[in-house]
Task: structure prediction
Amino acid sequence: MTSTRAAAIALQDRAALWSMGEVRAIEVVNAACDALVAGLDTPGLRTLAALTRAEADYDVHDLLPAALDELGLTFYPVADEAGREAAARALARRMLAGELTPREFTVRIHRRYGHELPLTERLAELDDEYDILEYGNRALHQVDAEVTAEARRIAAASAAPVDPGTGTPPRSA
Result:
């Protein structure tokens, strides 16, 4: 079973990725279901988790902010810089979990944010390095290792807090 901390982080990540257009609404609903199974439970989370695949695309937008707020998590509006950073951290965690290759990770970051987001600037540069590997003096494994190090740095930049006494995310002030 997933810990409540891991479930809160996963829900926060899917919400940030959804807000930035990286994942579909059903992934948010699935993360809400996983959070319930892990032991997080609020009325808004239950309502979000109960959505069908057909309802998700229409109703997540209305239900997600309140569900996150009940858990003390953050809803990131579209085009919000903090949301872009949260989505980058979520993608970094996905890469570190093996869901994306280092190359796929840099391509997605570079395509989504270019060289505009300070948190991911080095990843955009590394994506450019992948493009010139055959002409340069670096090997693929060297660039992959640097991307992995950057992913670790970005993923560690922030995480959903959890109250150590209860194992649940605290309410935001």
